[in-house]
Structures are given as C-alpha cells and as structure tokens.
Specification:
Blueprint lengths: L1 H30 L3 H14 L3 H13 L3 H14 L21 H18 L5 H15 L2 H13 L9 H26 L4 H4 L1 H12 L3 H16 L5 H14 L10 E4 L2 E4 L8 H7 L5 H9 L10
Antiparallel strand pairs: 1-2
Helix pairs in contact: 1-2, 2-3, 3-4, 6-8, 6-10, 7-8, 10-12, 11-12
Pfam family, one: DUF6624
Protein name: Lipoprotein
Organism: Prolixibacter bellariivorans
Length: 308
C-alpha cells in the first residue's frame, strides 16, 4: 500500500512538473510572438493540470489571435477563469482588445464589477470607471504586436522585420485619437477621476491617455493630476511620468528618470536634474530607486548611485 501511495505521489509530481514546463515554454513563445505554438503548450499544460490560471492564459492568448473562432474560445475559457475571481484586472488587460466590442464583453464587465463591489464596496462612479478601463485596453492593446517588432527593430539596426507593423502603428494612432476625444468629453462631464471614485487603476488610465496626447493637453491637465496626487488620489508613477515628460518637452532636466530616448540605438534616460538626488526625490513621492526600475522596465544598467 505504501509503495502504491509513493508511486501515485511520484506520478503526480511528474505531471505537475511537466505542466509547469509546458507553461514556462508557452510563456516564452508568447513573449516572442509565436501565439499558436504557445497556445498548443498551454493546452498541453491544461490537459495535465487544469486550473483557472491556465484558463486565463488560454483566453488571453486566443484573444490576441483576433479571429472570430478564437473569440468564442476566449469567452469560453475566460468565463471559466473568472468564476471565483472578484478582481477587475481582466477589465483592463490589453490582451483582450479584440473582444471589447463583442456583446459578451459587457457581460464579463457586469459580472466582475458585481463581484468586486460585493467584496470591496461600491465604486462611486462605475460608468466612468468602465469607460476608463476600456480606454486603457485600447491604448495598450496594439503594443503586444508593436513591441515585438520594436525589439526586432533594435536588433536589425533600425529596420522593422515586416511591413505588417505599419498598419499596427496606424491602429495605435487611431485608438489614441479616439481615446483622447472620448476622455475629454468624460472629463467635461465628471471632472478629473480620483482613485476613490473610479479605483486607482482606472484613475491612472486618465493620466496614461493624457500623457499620450499632445503637449498642450498635458500642460492643461497636469495641474489636475498633481492636485489628485497630492490628495492621495493618483498613482505616483503616473504623476512622475507626466511631470518628467513636460519638463523634457520644455528643454529642462527631468526629476524622476521616467523619460527615455535613443542615443545611437541605445536606450537611456533623458538628462536628470542632480542625478545623485534622484532616488531621494523618487522616495519622497512614493517610488522606489531608479536603478532597479530602469533595469526591470527597460533593461538599462543605471550607473549612478545616490550619494549618502
């Protein structure tokens, strides 16, 4: 009997390990843009060890494939994945850009808002939050394909590997223009969104969209973001990014090191005011040190350490 139990445990261990290996391989394939091979590996992992996490990975991957048949698969696995999930994360996941105009997406939104509010209390301005979540998806949704090609652009010495990138870039521009027009209407209607009214992530979405708009709009709405931030109603990173971007556009040194440029095909921060004090300034607004931020987000080795 003991031998049988030991054998069963060993088999379970190898099944779990095999599933984890498939998941890791699938994640890597997805990061490289190889969606169908990634989907096959996720499917193998799901067959070995079914889970809501794997259902979510399958749903987000099939959504990136943009076909009507795959959308059916997306909603099938997304509904499984979210049965016991009361978070709002799926509602601003850019992988789901291809499905947000499908009538079934509204049902997903309704269910997630209902579960979230049952656990966390009502969202004061749910209609505004819902619009902002969709705008975040539209703003970021083409970046999966775009960023894969941008990495190849760097490796290829300044050339894209396929002309397919150009309609992707055009769609990015179109989505940002539509977002800007819609957000300005909502800002006129509701005012600047605060974290306590629409949730922190949704409020950050407004800053994200304005930061991707024109300099004139950034200059106009930054005081509203700054006020919200000082009142504890906005994310420090969104505040820092818009502050730095305005300074760079005005030919000044940035304060927090959030704005990047390319110098001879090498990405680096724009000049930073008193760089030895940058970590102190970042800490004062609630951000971590610059060096790990640059390494994690941009794979930049920041040489300057704050003076003691």
């Amino acid at each position: 009997m003991k031998k049988l139990i030991a054998l069963s445990l060993t088999l379970l261990f190898f099944q779990a390990a095999f599933g984890q290996n498939n998941t890791s391989t699938a994640d890597s394939l997805k990061n490289e843009g190889l969606l169908m091979p990634a989907l096959m590996k996720y499917g193998e992992a799901m067959a070995q060890h079914p889970s809501t996490e794997m259902s979510y990975k399958i749903a987000s991957t099939t959504a990136l494939l943009w076909t009507s048949q795959m959308r059916d698969t997306t909603f099938y696995f997304l509904n499984i994945a979210l049965q016991n999930d009361s978070s709002l994360e799926p509602l601003y996941n850019p992988d789901f850009l291809s499905v947000i105009d499908d009538p079934r997406w509204e049902k997903v939104e309704d269910a997630q808002f209902k579960k979230y509010e049952a656990k966390n209390g009502p969202i004061k301005n749910e209609p505004f939050a819902r619009e902002l979540f969709r705008m975040i998806i539209k703003d970021q949704g083409m970046m999966y394909a775009g960023n894969i090609e941008r990495r190849k652009y760097m490796k290829n010495g300044g050339y894209f590997s396929t002309p397919a990138i150009f309609p992707v870039l055009a769609m990015e521009e179109k989505n940002k223009k539509e977002n800007e027009e819609q957000l300005l209407k909502l800002l006129d209607q509701y005012g600047w969104p605060t974290a306590s009214a629409v949730t922190e992530v949704a409020a950050a979405g407004a800053a994200l969209i304005i930061n991707h708009a024109s300099h004139e709009l950034r200059a106009k709405y930054f005081p509203m973001l700054e006020k919200a931030f000082k009142n504890g109603e906005a994310q420090p990173l969104r505040y820092a990014k818009m502050c730095d971007r305005l300074l760079v556009e005005e030919g000044k040194e940035q304060l927090y090191g959030t704005q990047m440029k390319f110098d001879n095909m090498v990405r680096k921060p724009y000049p930073i005011k008193e760089p030895e004090k940058v970590d102190k300034r970042r800490a004062e607004i609630g951000l971590g040190p610059l060096k790990p931020y640059l390494k994690e987000r941009f794979n930049i080795d920041w040489p300057t350490a704050e003076k003691k």
